[in-house]
UniProtKB/TrEMBL annotation:
<feature type="compositionally biased region" description="Basic and acidic residues">
    <location>
        <begin position="260"/>
        <end position="273"/>
    </location>
</feature>
<feature type="region of interest" description="Disordered">
    <location>
        <begin position="256"/>
        <end position="338"/>
    </location>
</feature>
<feature type="signal peptide">
    <location>
        <begin position="1"/>
        <end position="35"/>
    </location>
</feature>
<keyword id="KW-0732">Signal</keyword>
<feature type="compositionally biased region" description="Low complexity">
    <location>
        <begin position="302"/>
        <end position="319"/>
    </location>
</feature>
<protein>
    <submittedName>
        <fullName>Trypsin-like peptidase</fullName>
    </submittedName>
</protein>
<dbReference type="Pfam" id="PF13365">
    <property type="entry name" value="Trypsin_2"/>
</dbReference>
<feature type="compositionally biased region" description="Low complexity">
    <location>
        <begin position="328"/>
        <end position="338"/>
    </location>
</feature>
<dbReference type="GO" id="GO:0004252">
    <property type="term" value="F:serine-type endopeptidase activity"/>
</dbReference>
<dbReference type="GO" id="GO:0006508">
    <property type="term" value="P:proteolysis"/>
</dbReference>
<feature type="compositionally biased region" description="Polar residues">
    <location>
        <begin position="276"/>
        <end position="288"/>
    </location>
</feature>
<dbReference type="InterPro" id="IPR001940">
    <property type="entry name" value="Peptidase_S1C"/>
</dbReference>
<dbReference type="InterPro" id="IPR009003">
    <property type="entry name" value="Peptidase_S1_PA"/>
</dbReference>
<dbReference type="InterPro" id="IPR043504">
    <property type="entry name" value="Peptidase_S1_PA_chymotrypsin"/>
</dbReference>
Amino acid sequence: MGLMTMKRPGRAVWTRTGAAALLLGIALAGGQTQARPQDPYFRTAQRQFLSLEPETRLWFQIFLTSAGHWPAVPNIGYSTRLFEATRRLQAERGEAPTGVLTRSQVTQILGSASSVLHSWDMRRVDHPTRRAWIWLPAGVDLHFSRTADGLEARSWRSRLRIRFEYFPGQNLTRAHEATLTSMIRGGDRIQYQTLKRDFMVVSGRQGPHQRYVRYHDDGSGLIGFDMTWSGEEPPVYGERLATLVSGSLWASMTGAPFPRLDRPFRTPSRGDETPAQETPAQESSPSEPWSHAATPPPAGNSPASEPRASSQAAPPATAQERDDDSSRSVSTGSGFGVSTAGHFLTNAHVVSGCRSIAIRGADLATQPAELLARDETNDLALLRAGAPAESAAVLPLRPGVRLGEAVAAFGFPHSDMLATSGNFTLGNVTALSGLRDDSRYLQISAPVQSGNSGGPLVDAYGNLVGVVTAKLNAIKVMAASGDLPQNVNFAVKSALAASFLDSRQVQYATGGPGERKLEAADLAERARRASVFVTCAR
């Protein structure tokens, strides 16, 4: 049987205040294994740890796990196990193993863990049929697909696979025994296994390949995840990741405290600087190099707010004009079809604050559209046509793309001046991440302008590899550095778009490199037929 063989993504609360709480509060706190409660340092570490806010205690353990120092589910209590783990960490660093962390030690832990957490970009993902959720790493380019029993998430090269599934009528004892037996027969060397009243865990290794299985009894069956990965190198760090996913499932099933991911997670960066793309553009802010083709949404700094274009930056992503009523305005952007049921993707900022939305396409007459969902964190929005759109073309999603690969963008820039039939540009993938190594984005050289926001970025085979989102503000960069950048533009990766669609249970096609690349004219026609002109009346 199968067991044997995204509530909307958001961001967690980790701000300068949280970092300061660790640096100041944990300066005397410590970590968890089997210590001696009579040790005078233990009482000091315990007292200071428990003086922290519960969510800060959880985040501290998550940082320890991400840095490779804490292989246990985070909880708000303090134990001898955490104390001993801290002592081992100090001993490895050649420092006095007191179990009481100093300011410099906390700083080092935060620094070593921040890059890992940033690359993972953890998101909450709900099971499609049960009231359970887990954390999954959107930053490793996971591609989601529905299974008969739930969801499967895979990395592009299948180095990581996680199945989050529910099996009705199953028994924990039998499932534990069957899983253990099948893994041993399959050649796995069992590293850990346990069977409790309400959950089971089995983990094993076969060469570089590892597997971690955890299932809980939810009253009518079993729900849990089966995770496999290869190697411990970045960005996966499978054992650390399995610990956090396991902790999230435990919290989901028991109601135990666990950090919320209602807002984008901000990890402290070097020097505690906020990357330029992590805050909405501010008026007259010379340090903000983004402009809308779109201004990217916060990667996680202040509470979520609508991205705003700087009044001194390049034009906003959506061309705006006033209608006859001076109190109202109309803005435009781009989008594209992802399902024959009439679903379309665009950017969240394109449809922000709309009283009404309309779309039209090459094979689609102008009609109203309903806003089904918005993901401000990743600047994505899901629309549904007001009438059946079976005739509209759709683009298959491809979850990975290579550095240097040829790509093309289609959209409706400057619709007040340029062709209303759309604009097609060619370029290449110039980087596999955005500003400050933001793993949500691709950097592309295909020219984009005001109005391209929400349009498709396709590969040479006609697959969707990104959603056009942002461009670098050349004027501000030139003013700050004296250098004028050319065609530095950004697109949200298709893996995040796939995750967003999966969270809304939208059925979409997937694709990959084919045998023959399309001629530019054929590629333009495919992108044109799938794209729509989006109008937002405010």
